[in-house]
Amino acid sequence: MNAIVVIPTYNEADGIEIALDAVLRAQPDADVLVVDDNSPDGTAALVAAHPGFGHHVHLLERQDKDGLGAAYRAGFTWALDRDYDVIVQMDADLSHPPAKIPELIDALRTSDMAIGSRYVPGGGTSNWSLSRRLISRAGNTYVRLVLGQAVHDATAGFRAFHRRSLLRLDVLGSRSNGYSFQIENTWRAATLGLRITEVPITFTDRTTGQSKMSAGIVREAVALVLVWRWNQLCASLHTPSRHHVTDGHDVGV
After folding, report:
1. What pLDDT is stored for residue 218 in this prediction?
2. CA 207, 209, 212, 213 torsion: positive or negative?
3. Under CATH, which architecture does the 3-252 domain have?
């Protein structure tokens, strides 16, 4: 399958070269697209200077820093316009293990979307404080309860999609950012009955750069989950749904 890995960046100069090399080692036949939001630290220049630039490494420069979701939508649009069959999304800070990219792509043989999950057997986190683990667990529990979905790690940012799945999800028509961008796509997939596979990963806290997480991003996610559920209930209160989870961590509706 013709695959591309989309990596959004803002001030990731300390680690972007390491991340690019790791992705290309893990999936040598894939392309990589860095979507840079006008980083003042020179991230884009480092991407452009990479030995693979213009071959397997590509760069999309944006003038505004207007959120993770907006960066991914720009990257997905670029990839869809160039007819890639598989689109993978991941962070630039190596929190997501590039070595798991082949497993995510392989999961698409039987699924519409694959999620690198911390919260299925075999998954986990590394170098996280107790408070951060509790917040992440609570957030995912909140999403599962409010939206009534079976995915264990709805906020995960390490994912692989079939081209047709992205189009069916209308990801380009979404408006959410931050955690809520990941949650919205998971919820849309479950609502549409797409088959989702959760691939266990170990999420390792970043060792370079600074986290982009903020209280505003968390508040947005909490509020939008309630809005989506309310709108869903108003539109189709009596529509029956069915969730199915297999031992292989597949989730369907």
Report:
1. 64
2. positive
3. Alpha-Beta Complex (3.90)
